[in-house]
Amino acid sequence: MSAPDKQRLVSLLAKRSARRGSFTLASGKQSSLYIDARLTTMSPDGLSLIGPLGLDAIRNAQWPADSVGGLTLGADPIAYAISYASAHTASPIRAFTVRKEAKAHGTGKLIEGPFAAGDRVVVVEDVITTGSSAARAVDAVRAAGATVLGVLALVDRDEGGRESLEAMGLSVVSLVSAAEILALSA
After folding, report:
1. pLDDT tens-digit readout, 47-66
2. What share of the chain is helix, strand, coil (3-state, %, to 5)?
3. Which one, of 173, 138, 136, 170, lies nearest residue 152 by Cα?
4. How far apart are CA 75 and CA 184, in angstroms?
5. Res 41: pLDDT
6. Across the chain, how many H-helices and E-strands are there?
7. What is the pLDDT of residue 102?
8. pTM of the model as a whole
9. Taking 90 as the threshold, does the pLDDT of residue 80 lie above it?
């Protein structure tokens, strides 16, 4: 991971995505810090940093991924950026999305995109707090016949989510910690 690019990503997250106040997180936990990663992950400069940094993290973890994705909506832009960054490499990685529930019409899919049973998958998450969203995605892709190589988080809040996922036998890599964001947003 390029140190200058990582620092630019931390700076973007601190400037755009970090908010101080009183918040109830998706996990139900109360926090004085809210990280709306989508304000960074859905921006051109955020995507252009996240794709290569995420791809580097996957390669450095030695995860031979066929596809990457996670629970919609937070994981989507991260997976797409990584897939795009891999397009002209020797091992392109496909992106997919895990729906919160299977469609009630059409094919009734829970996983959308060019995902295939037998894929070696990296599950991505925008912000890990408890790890429950990543765990839902892991369960879905395993049920669909994939092997989960690990979990890649954009931000780890360091609030037990990593440990919860590791207790499931998963390796976890994060691009940024909440502490790094707090250091710049204080």
Report:
1. 999 999 999 999 999 999 99
2. 40, 25, 35
3. 173
4. 24
5. 98
6. 7, 8
7. 73
8. 0.94
9. yes
For residue 130, the number of C-alpha atoms closer than 13 Å in the C-beta half-sphere is: 10
Domain 3-185, architecture per CATH: 3-Layer(aba) Sandwich (3.40)
**Side chain identity, residue 130:** T
pLDDT of amino acid 29: 82
The domain locations on the chain are 3-185
Extract the tokens encoding 127.
Answer: 């912000």
Retrieve residue 112's tokens.
């959308």
Judge whether residue 130 has pLDDT over 80: yes
CA 170/CA 168 separation, integer angstroms = 6
Instruction: Dump the DSSP string for 73-122.
Output: TTSHHHHHHHHHHHTTSSS--EEEEE-SS--SSTT--SEESS--TT-EEE
Question: Could you tell me the two tokens for 41?
Answer: 């992950």
**Joined tokens for residue 20:** 């101080």
Contact between 122 and 155 under an 8 Å Cβ cutoff? The reply is no
Cα-Cα-Cα-Cα dihedral sign, residues 103, 42, 174, 183: negative
User: Under 8 Å CB-to-CB from 115, ≥6 apart: which residues?
Assistant: 67, 69, 94, 96, 121, 141, 144, 146
